[in-house]
Give the backbone structure.
Amino acid sequence: MNNLLPVTERDAKVNDLITYPYPKFHDIDSIDWKPWVMEGVEYKLVSVNTRSNGFTIYLKVAPNTIAPVHHHLGSIELLVLEGDITYDGKDIGRPGSYMFEPAGDIHQPRTTKGCILFCVFEGPIAGLDDDGGILGIVDGKTMRAMAEGHGSSAILDQTSV
């Protein structure tokens, strides 16, 4: 038996430390997919971290999409929910696959079947031009403004820090 996190008695002093009100679950299916900054990609923004300028997002990528080359200025964690995604054609992420990309990575992912990803961006992402120059930067502030423009930002008032 693991006693690292034992259940406490109802009248224990530690119960006075519990944060109320509890956070709420949200029905992500009720949020409509909206066009994102990459062609063939739609998004559902679920939170913005104003401390890191990162954001948490679902991405739906159309079949046979090749993303533009981009630079992660912060790390990103992603979970493949549907479809496939690859960077080199050999290591292919499928449903249930997880990946951590460290800050500083520059790459160009692609999909054949299309995919739905759950992504936690711990900082901005920069789109790069053919010479490696920055075309634009997407961060938490950009994503909040985009969601507000799409009328899909109500969840952010309850999920963002």
The radius of gyration is 18 Å.
